[in-house]
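The material for today's practical consists of a large collection of protein records. Getting from the letters to the tokens is the skill we practise here. To make this concrete, we reproduce a full record directly below:
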Amino acid sequence: MITSTTEQASPIFYLAGVSRSTSRYIYSMSIQFNNILFLDIETVPQHDGHENLPEEWKVLWDHKASFLIRNKETETSKSIYARAGIYAEFGKIICISCGVIQGSGEEKKLVIKSFCGHDEKMLLYQFCEMLNKWCSDGNKQLCAHNGKEFDFPYLCRRLIINHISLPEILHLHGKRPWEVPHLDTLDMWKFGDYKNYTSLNLLAHALGIPTPKDDIDGSRVHEVYWKEKNLERIIVYCQKDVLTVAQVLLRMNGEPLIKAGNVELKN
């Protein structure tokens, strides 16, 4: 999938709020945009409603929900069940979209492929097969928005639950922070301000990048999947997020954005 390599020094990391020695190490590195896999995942609760949970899982969710309820007068474990999808123990992945940049400069393009379906184990297996093949020559990185807090750990947990071995690029145990090949545009944008959260939608607007939230947002994925049964709509939404993450990373590093006509969707 990678046809060429573009190297660009990345001063953004020097301001990321890590130790001085680590900053010097990271600052000396360069981002190879063609060696980054941009990704986004979409998740939903494993069941279409609280009433359809197996009894033992209902007890476990009710206990979990007791810590999540904000207003005990209006919320119950049943009414907030749509939020179960963001927890790997109660949710499942229905779409992984990923993209790579090919070429460089004004004419570079983004190639996007999605792994999706109702059979989570199958889509995870297919994704890992691709990921292992793509990473076979080393020096590869993953990039997502809030990936370190959500996408990457969620993927790892669901892989383990489904008895699928973690690809090497997702193995974090024993690695120093600067050895982890994961980029996170949210983490970069914090500039050490770890109490701050900025959504991809807000960051895209701030940077003058077309927003991906022009149809649905994450809060509606549960409804679109279980009630509308419109997986295709979720896939399109996920692919737009991948494009936006790539554009944000380029913009933060002073690189030209990908032109509207330079996005290729692969089956």
